[in-house]
Structures
1.
Amino acid sequence: MKILVINSGSSSIKYKLYEYPKNRLIDKGLIENVGEKDSLVKNHAQGVKVLIENIVISGAISDLSEISAIGHRVVHGGEDFAAPKIVDQSVIDKIKLCANLAPLHNPANLAGIEGCRKILPKVSQVVVFDTAFHQTISKKAYMYALPYKYYQKYKIRKYGFHGTSHQFVSKQASNYLGKPLSKLKLIICHLGNGCSITAVNKGKSVDTSMGFTPLEGLMMGTRSGNIDIAAVFHVMEKENLSIQEMAEILNKKSGFLGVSKISNDFRVIIKAVKEEDKLAKLALDMFIYRIKKYIGAYLFILGGADAVCFTGGVGENNSGLVNKIKIDILKITGDKTKVLVIPTDEELMIGNLTYNLVKRGYKSNKEKK
Ligand code: ADP
């Protein structure tokens, strides 16, 4: 059974094609500059069409009928989705409502789904949400101490992101440790361009560092992470900035890029630190300090941890960084806590979740034939 996984972003569409039940990767690719000026691919519907045609041209499949299901990444599922869902009109309508919470991402995700539905109307489509894994977080942990009416009116609360990655890495850690998730306390550090840390108890997210948007929490490539909001008001006033301009600064010009004045790319920062650049060193120290603060908080919340796992482009490729943090973890926990580096694979997780949802229908269809 072949499952196509689609990650339809604002200007790119990535895909991976897997063969199940062995979850073997058989093809992957990417279409960039979707909808941009001078691009041949004018919109997501056209992008998805080109992408699916390319899969046949590449020889990965001989006919579109070989695709049994499609799994789509959707960034925001709000409070409506705590698990993956087979797409029907009511699911589409709810994702449209959640677009209010993720105006840059959900419309692009939806365009990918609708493009696929047009080309392959009979194929089951499944949506997997970045926020779903965190729907187990308790109300005392997800509420902000704002007037309650803003939660009631606008659903202002922590949602958390990178859920598919945190879930995947939790499962991998459980396999590696040879213990069921129900017996494990884990802290997962997803460190890429975006960074988030999640406390996982018995396989369930109990707290996570990202919030209403991915801006909260750790320092990231270009995002500030936690900040006193009063400092934001102060800068806006002094520099006469609009909300849009300030949002751009916090999301795109802060973090490693903002502090170091050099780059958002961790490799460039490490090189600059080796060349004794002071601001790059400061940025790196701030990054590590903040990771340690979250790990400390989550060790306390969980009452210890069986493992702290590092993943994402930064977490997977920088043993120096991980070892530095490991020394401090072991100082507190002794050898009770393992420190693991585990590669993430969000597309594979989406493929697996899609397979789990559709396999029953697929088998009974085959039996009928
Ligand atoms: P995204 O959040 O966009 O998925 P990634 O998980 O790919 O990002 O992580 C991107 C970050 O990982 C960049 O800062 C990059 O410098 C860092 N990175 C990727 N590969 C390496 C490597 N081999 N060594 C050090 N850092 C790396």
2.
Amino acid sequence: MKLLSVIVPCYNEEENVPYFYEELKKQEAFFHEKDVELEIIYVDDGSKDGTVAEVRRLHEQDERVHLVSFSRNFGKEAGIYAGLSKAKGDFAVLMDADLQDPPALLPEMYSYLEQGYDAVATRRVSRKGEPPIRSFFARMFYRLMRKISKTEIVDGARDYRLMTRQVVDAILSMREYNRFTKGIFGWVGFQTKWLEYENIERVKGETKWSFWKLFIYSLEGIMAFSTAPLALASVLGVLFCFLALVLILVIVIRTLIFGDPTSGWPSMVCIISLLGGVQLLCIGIVGQYLSKTYMEVKRRPIYLVKEEL
Ligand code: UDP
Ligand code: MG
């Protein structure tokens, strides 16, 4: 008998917790036939509603339902790490509580593991039901990432992912504090099968991601998996040195030929503000990396548990 751990990070999902359980149960028959047992690990990410109570109720009915409850909201990335740490399964799958990751896809995903893949990942091919501006920035982000990061980060990839114990252990071995899971999946590698499906809108409740939160998150992703911005200062430095050299030559030659008319105050102001801006930008970038390093060096725990079932 094998065990499949289903990991569900939940933040204020009281309506979805039981609903998810019911939907997942529909896949039980398939896995029973394959001699695979299920365990469900709900990770409560410091919810302020009745999420914990709902999971407790399910745990009383069904001992295969487990709970890890955080002391506060640590973010979905921490939830994923906690769930994977608690998982005892030979396989583990990450799923959202809002049923945007359809459980009906599980049998197909599992069949690929049987064929020898180490992981089965999903990506959505459409961004139906999403504001156009958000889709636009998302596309830009992935395009930029492809250029500046060596780690492969797939456009539209969801966290819905089924993996073997080997992959789970690889992910758990990455103990960094600033966790950008999409990058971590790419970084660990392994043979991954990609499945595609149309975007499904969440059933109940609303998304926790505002545009601004997503924007900040994308910057985190860039910093976690690329050091290209750090090179920006050097590149701009070389560029401006070259430009300055050309300008000096032009001015010297012009002075020799036409004499020295004293002017050029406006151009001076422009140059000073441009260079001042560029310098501040570069220091800012260095500062961002420094602050990330500072947080890593503190070695704080990724999450704190308040209750476990
Ligand atoms: N989530 C979480 N902690 C958070 C935010 C979200 O555990 O701080 C969970 C949430 O409960 C859901 C999943 O992560 O199960 C995806 O969140 P959401 O549906 O809000 O994101 P979206 O699908 O819009 O990207
Ligand atoms: Mg969702």
